[in-house]
Amino acid sequence: MKAAVILFPGSNRERDVERALRLAGADVQRVWHAEHELPAGTDLAVLPGGFSYGDYLRCGAIAARSPAMDAVRAHAARGGLVLGICNGFQILCESGLLPGALMRNAKLRFICHRQHVRVERADTAFTRNYAPGQVIDICVAHGEGNYTADPATLARLEGYGLVAFRYCDPNGEVTVDSNVNGSTNSIAGIYSPNRNVLGLMPHPENFVDPLVGGTDGLPLFQSLVGRIAQAA
Amino acid sequence: MKARVTVTLKSGVLDPQGKAIEGALASLGIRGILGVRQGKVFDVELATEDAGEAEATLRQACEKLLANTVIENFHYEVETPGQNGGGRRGRETAPATLSPDDPTVEAADDAEMPIEGHP
C-alpha cells in the first residue's frame, strides 16, 4: 500500500503519521505541497496535523489552495483514499473535499489531552479493524476543532452515516461534558459521501505504540493497509 | 485603486471570541453593549482603476480565499478618487456589494473608513 504524506510549511505531525503508517506496513513517501502530482500508484493521500501557514487567515485555508491539493482532489475524485488529521481535517474542509467548517473551540482554549471517541461505523476502509461502536482512547490537540455545518449538511451527514467518530465518555456515551470543543452533534470526524475521504480532529497516530501509553490509533492505519492489500 | 474587504461570521454561527470580548467589555465597566461579533478587515490594493474590473477581482478573491462562505459573509467597498473635485479630501465609496446569500449585512455600517491619501 502506497501512502503519500503531503507536507505543507508549518505541518509538524508528518513524521508521526509516517511512522504509524510504516508500523502498519505501508510504503510511505513524503510529498511537498508545491508538487502538482502525487507519486504514481499512490493509494492513500495523507494530510498531517500541524499549523500549515501558521494558521494564517483561517486554519488550513492557504494550504487548501496549494498545487498538491489539486492533485489530492483529483485522487479523491478517482476514488482514492484521503486521510486528514487535525490540521489535515481543517484543510479538507477548506478545500471543499469535506463539508462544513472547524471553528474556534467553544471554550476558546487550546485542548491537548487524551480523549475517548466512538467509532460510528466499522465497515469503511479506515475503520474495518475496529468494532462498530467501539470506544477508543486517543488524543486531541487543537484550538479550532469545533465542527459546524448548516442544518441541511448535518442532516445529510447523519442521514447517510457519514459521521465517522464522536467525542464520548469512557462508556461511549455522547454527553455535553465529553464534547471537548463544542462540535455540533459531538462530531470528531466525517467521511465524504463515498467514504473514501476521512477527516478527523483527534490524532490516531499518537497512539500506535504501547511505549507512549496506548495503541488505539493503530487499527485505523492497519485498516487502510489491509484494505489495499485485500484489493491487490 | 484601493478597496476594503470585510468578512463577518454569518448570523447564527456561534462566535466564542465575540462572546469573550463582550465579557471583557462588561468587566471593564463599559455599559450599553448588547453584543459583539468579531470579523476581519482586508485592505486591498488593486492594479486596475476600473470599478467593474475591481469588483470582479474582489468577488473572486472573497469567494475563493478571503471568506469561508460556509460560515462567513463578505462585503467590499472600492475607493474611487473623489469626482466632485474642489480639492475635497476624501473619496467616494462605490456601492457596496453584498454576499448574495446574506441580505442582512448592512452597508451603512461601514461608512467610517479612514480617509487615506486620496486628494
UniProtKB/TrEMBL annotation, chain A:
PROSITE patterns named in the record: GATASE_TYPE_1
GO molecular-function term, one example from the UniProt record: glutaminase activity
Superkingdom, natural source: Bacteria
EC number per UniProt: 6.3.5.3, 3.5.1.2
Active site, renumbered: C86, H203, E205
GO-annotated cellular components: cytoplasm
Electron transport is among the record's keywords: no
Family annotation (SUPFAM superfamilies): Class I glutamine amidotransferase-like
UniProt cross-references to Pfam families, sorted A to Z: GATase_5
Annotated TM spans: none
Protein keywords: ATP-binding, Cytoplasm, Glutamine amidotransferase, Hydrolase, Ligase, Nucleotide-binding, Purine biosynthesis
Predominant place of localization: cytoplasm
CDD domains, alphabetized: GATase1_FGAR_AT
Subcellular location: Cytoplasm
Catalyzed chemical reaction(s): N(2)-formyl-N(1)-(5-phospho-beta-D-ribosyl)glycinamide + L-glutamine + ATP + H2O = 2-formamido-N(1)-(5-O-phospho-beta-D-ribosyl)acetamidine + L-glutamate + ADP + phosphate + H(+); L-glutamine + H2O = L-glutamate + NH4(+)
Keyword ATP-binding: yes
Pathway(s) of this molecule: Purine metabolism; IMP biosynthesis via de novo pathway; 5-amino-1-(5-phospho-D-ribosyl)imidazole from N(2)-formyl-N(1)-(5-phospho-D-ribosyl)glycinamide: step 1/2
GO biological process per UniProt: 'de novo' IMP biosynthetic process
Subunit structure as annotated in this protein's UniProt entry: Part of the FGAM synthase complex composed of 1 PurL, 1 PurQ and 2 PurS subunits.
Function according to Swiss-Prot or TrEMBL: Part of the phosphoribosylformylglycinamidine synthase complex involved in the purines biosynthetic pathway. Catalyzes the ATP-dependent conversion of formylglycinamide ribonucleotide (FGAR) and glutamine to yield formylglycinamidine ribonucleotide (FGAM) and glutamate. The FGAM synthase complex is composed of three subunits. PurQ produces an ammonia molecule by converting glutamine to glutamate. PurL transfers the ammonia molecule to FGAR to form FGAM in an ATP-dependent manner.
Cross-referenced HAMAP family: PurQ (MF_00421)
Protein name: Phosphoribosylformylglycinamidine synthase subunit PurQ
Organism: Enterovirga aerilata
Phylogenetic classification of the source organism: Bacteria, Pseudomonadati, Pseudomonadota, Alphaproteobacteria, Hyphomicrobiales
From TrEMBL, chain B:
One of the record's GO cellular component terms: cytoplasm
Pathway: Purine metabolism; IMP biosynthesis via de novo pathway; 5-amino-1-(5-phospho-D-ribosyl)imidazole from N(2)-formyl-N(1)-(5-phospho-D-ribosyl)glycinamide: step 1/2
Region (Disordered): 77-119
Keyword Nucleotide-binding belongs to the record: yes
GO annotation terms (biological process): 'de novo' IMP biosynthetic process
EC identifiers of the protein: 6.3.5.3
Amino acid composition bias (Acidic residues), ranges on this chain: 103-113
Subcellular location: Cytoplasm
Molecular functions per Gene Ontology: ATP binding; phosphoribosylformylglycinamidine synthase activity
Pfam families: PurS
Keywords attached to this entry: ATP-binding, Cytoplasm, Ligase, Nucleotide-binding, Purine biosynthesis
Top-level lineage group: Bacteria
Reaction it catalyzes: N(2)-formyl-N(1)-(5-phospho-beta-D-ribosyl)glycinamide + L-glutamine + ATP + H2O = 2-formamido-N(1)-(5-O-phospho-beta-D-ribosyl)acetamidine + L-glutamate + ADP + phosphate + H(+)
Family: Belongs to the PurS family.
Functional note: Part of the phosphoribosylformylglycinamidine synthase complex involved in the purines biosynthetic pathway. Catalyzes the ATP-dependent conversion of formylglycinamide ribonucleotide (FGAR) and glutamine to yield formylglycinamidine ribonucleotide (FGAM) and glutamate. The FGAM synthase complex is composed of three subunits. PurQ produces an ammonia molecule by converting glutamine to glutamate. PurL transfers the ammonia molecule to FGAR to form FGAM in an ATP-dependent manner.
Assembly and interaction partners: Part of the FGAM synthase complex composed of 1 PurL, 1 PurQ and 2 PurS subunits.
Identification of the protein by name: Phosphoribosylformylglycinamidine synthase subunit PurS
Gene behind the chain: purS
